[in-house]
Write a structure and sequence with these properties.
The chain has 802 residues and is an alpha+beta fold. It contains 16 helices and 44 strands. The chain has an eight-stranded mixed sheet with strand order 37-38-40-39-41-42-43-44, sandwiched between helices. It folds into four domains: 43-168; 218-300, no CATH class; 303-410, no CATH class; 545-800, Alpha/Beta hydrolase fold, catalytic domain (Rossmann fold).
């Protein structure tokens, strides 16, 4: 028995070592598999109305379905809600009156009202249409919400809900449309006059009954048959409505198509996508003020905005017009004449375009010029039926898409807003008609401002400590010091509790997707509520990216980057290197949060395992570094960024001992564009490159993004020629791999195919292309991801390892 006992003891002693053995080396199949193996990121957290619980969503493994979870705010095990429990959970989009006597929220597309004193909940709507945007008046008496472009109201004391206003894009049927012939007939025939008189009397009686009977639906507002409704917004007290319109059927222009080759039907099928930049400018918008009590409609003239008659493109316009006239193209030159009044749109794509004060006595509208050079925040003078400009932000390049949040303080007569006017996004307040007060300042960015329920404190996300480190801070709305609340350094999002005492925060780190915690607004130890990372992913010895500073040789200062290399720094010497170029242009990838490029990060680990080092750079144009960094590429895309990438290569050679002849480059979307610019504008600098879904010719990209940076192609053809890789195709000498999804409706596959044809005609070598019939801009199928990166890996092995 003793030998057997000894053997058992030996086996038991070795079991822990076997259980915790190092995971196998990384392989392409694993890192490009469905990301469910990593663990799900926590999504869309929100508080229960009483602030005791936090709800959140998690994607279900193997399915796009999201399940709803609930966790105690003070800590404890989260619970996945079954359909019955989810049906009775507190909903999203919660709003409160000032005294917190009532709360309203949206659940499964319907509006619910809760009496916080009595603890009772009333379902206000039950319809097939989705209701959104609930709002409680400051005194809690009126609940309003939206369904499409229609607005409804409900008295919290009880009674039926009613439609606040009926707005129709038609001519008023009561408007006198008689002709001279009809006037003659009325003058000649008493019988016709009598019929007409009876008809008027009937209508007058009906109007009088409707006006005297509040139980009836309101009379329609007719805003004209030549416009279409873009947006509507109802004041919290139900007195006024703003309507955003555009000319009917104004949108047009030829739409590019793409083809689905792999289909259920077995036939190739076409899909319409979008127009090209400059083929049809954004349709100008107009504002109408509806007085619901007086039943009157007023046009709000944007021609009174300061600077609206300026032409910020005058110099470029004059140069292009002169060139066209010299070439005998007078008709094209005439078409480029500057408008007397610049057209505008309500800026509502990335932030609210219209915001009311809590009492409904004031409203602010954010307007942007169609040429992207100005942003105004204007209020409405209800007595004069006119706009009053409160703030103008001008940019000789383009107004930022992000960081345009604005609203009112609780006093209803003070605006708050974000502005880049100092070169960085900061928070300001301004009494209506008065001077601005900066609540934050410095060489860092502020975003996501949230005002506390009592109106005394703003909570914001900033990268004050370092460009790559984000946390939540607070600042008094009356002015004062900026105080740090969290210390995660990787802050993704947050939500303030109903009582204003806690924050629900989403935080992450390079290899941990967003997790949920609660923390006091005064700081302290957070309560961690979730841990969704799976053991199979967590057990890998992932390389912590080292954040480094690459000095610019062109006077731009520091280019921040992430470096991936072996644990022993000495081993980096003589290794080949790969430079990764992130997409979107205006995106930040050098940070301490979980990256959107998590697959690429795993690929970088695999590359290090295979003997490379990797550098991931936030080149000029990237987000998080201020206005000048963002706009360095104005009319010159691909040039400052290439300078930064070449400085990155020089840093690798000097600081890591990398062989300058064995540096590769790759990236997708804007990163694919930059890969092409690097190979074509700096031939010989990179041994090989992979351009994924690249823009090759900016004249075929969309208007919203491209015209902001390069202006219209008809007005500024020089900027497009300077910035498009296809114009440099004759310079190709280094191996390039182009990969593109055939049903990409963002950067169309025709971009890659046109460049491929250009290479053919130029008799170039070393270019290959791989097309993916079932992929759009962001690949979703693991087989495609695997094939895409297998080819990139082979490209680097063939051209960098030798």
């Amino acid at each position: 028995m003793r030998p057997l006992a000894t053997a058992l003891l030996t086996a038991l002693a070795t079991m822990p070592a076997l259980a915790y053995a190092a995971p196998p080396p990384l392989d392409m199949e694993t890192i490009m598999a469905d990301p469910d193996w990593i663990g799900q990121a926590v999504e869309e957290p929100y508080w229960s109305v009483d602030g005791s619980q936090v709800y959140y969503s998690l994607k279900r493994d193997g399915s796009p379905v999201r399940d709803l979870y609930r966790a105690p705010a003070a800590g404890g095990a989260p619970v996945k809600l079954d359909p019955g429990a989810a049906a009775s959970a507190d909903g999203t989009k919660q709003v409160f009156d000032h005294a917190h006597r009532h709360a309203a929220f949206v659940r499964h597309g319907d509006i619910f009202l809760r009496d916080l004193g009595a603890g009772t909940t009333v379902q206000v709507t039950r319809s097939a249409r989705a209701e959104t945007s609930p709002h409680l008046s400051a005194d809690g008496r009126l609940l309003t919400w939206r369904s499409g472009d229609d607005w409804f109201a409900y008295n919290t004391a009880g009674g039926p809900a009613w439609q606040a206003a009926v707005v129709e894009a038609k001519d008023d049927p009561k408007k006198d449309k008689s002709s001279d012939l009809q006037d003659q007939q009325q003058a000649l025939f008493t019988t016709l006059r009598g019929l007409k008189s009876d008809e008027k009397a009937m209508k007058a009686d009906a109007d009088a009954l409707a006006a005297a009977d509040p139980a009836r639906a309101p009379a329609s507002f007719y805003i004209g048959k030549d416009v279409s409704i873009v947006d509507t917004s109802l004041s919290p007290d139900g007195r006024y409505m703003l309507v955003v319109t555009k000319a009917k059927d104004a949108d047009g222009g030829k739409v590019a198509d793409l083809t689905h080759y792999v289909t259920d039907s077995g036939y190739a099928e076409a899909e319409a996508t979008r127009t090209y930049v400059g083929r049809i400018d954004p349709t100008p918008q107009a504002l109408k003020l509806l007085d619901l009590r007086g039943h009157a409609v007023y046009d709000l003239d944007t021609a009174t905005l300061p600077g609206i008659h300026d032409d910020p493109l005058a110099d470029i316009r004059a140069k292009t017009v002169a060139a066209l006239r010299k070439d005998g193209k007078g008709d094209r030159a005439d078409a480029l004449a500057a408008p007397k009044t610049r057209p505008v749109i309500v800026n509502s794509e990335y932030s609210p375009g219209i915001v009311w004060s809590d009492d409904g006595h004031d409203v602010a509208v954010q307007l942007t010029s169609v040429d992207n050079k100005d942003r105004w925040i204007a209020t409405v003078d209800f007595e004069r039926h006119a706009l009053s400009s409160q703030h103008r932000l001008s940019d000789k390049a383009w107004i930022n898409w992000d960081n345009n949040d604005f609203g009112f303080l609780r006093d209803g007569s003070t605006l708050w807003y974000l502005s880049e006017e100092t070169g960085f996004s900061h928070l300001y307040t301004r009494r209506l008609g008065g001077k601005a007060t900066a609540l934050t300042s410095g060489r860092f960015e502020v975003d996501h401002p949230v005002l506390s329920a009592d109106g005394k404190t703003f909570y914001v996300r900033t990268n004050q400590v370092a460009p790559y480190s984000y946390d939540i801070y607070k600042v008094p709305s009356a002015g004062g010091a900026l105080g740090r609340v969290t210390k995660y350094e990787g802050m993704d999002d947050f939500a303030l509790s109903p009582d204003g005492r806690q924050l629900a925060v989403l935080h992450s780190s390079p290899y941990v997707p967003s997790q949920l915690a609660t923390v006091s607004v005064d700081g302290g130890t957070p309560h961690e509520l979730t841990h969704t990372v799976k053991p199979g992913f967590a057990e890998h010895a992932w390389i912590a990216p080292k954040i480094v500073q690459v000095p610019s040789s062109h006077g731009a200062g520091t280019v921040w980057a992430k470096f991936y290399g072996p644990a022993d720094a000495a081993q980096a010497a003589s290794r080949p290197a790969v430079i990764f170029v992130h997409g979107a242009g205006y995106l930040q990838n050098v940070h301490l949060s979980y990256p959107s490029y998590f697959r690429e990060q795993m690929f970088h680990n695999l590359l290090v395992q295979r003997g490379y080092v990797v550098l991931d750079m936030d080149y000029r144009a990237s987000k998080g570094y201020g206005r000048d960094w963002r706009t360095a590429i104005y009319r010159n895309m691909g040039h400052p960024e290439l300078e930064d990438l070449l400085d990155g290569k020089a840093w690798l050679v000097k600081n890591q001992g990398v062989d300058p002849k064995r540096v590769g480059i790759y990236g997708g979307s804007y990163g694919g564009f930059m890969t092409l610019m690097a190979l074509l504008r700096a031939p010989g600098e990179f041994a090989a490159g992979a351009a994924l879904r690249p823009v090759t010719d900016w004249t075929s990209y969309n208007h919203e993004y491209t015209a902001a940076i390069l202006n219209d192609p008809q007005l500024d053809p020089e900027a497009y020629a300077t910035s498009s890789p296809i114009q440099y195709a004759d310079k190709l000498q280094d191996p390039v791999l182009i990969e593109h999804g055939l049903i990409d409706d963002n950067v169309l596959a025709s971009d890659s195919i046109r460049l491929y044809q250009r290479f053919i005609e130029l008799h170039k070598k070393n270019f290959t292309m791989s097309l993916y019939p079932m992929e759009r801009h962001g690949f979703v199928h693991p087989d495609s991801w695997y094939d895409e990166y297998r080819r990139i890996d082979e490209l680097f092995q063939q051209n960098l390892k030798q």
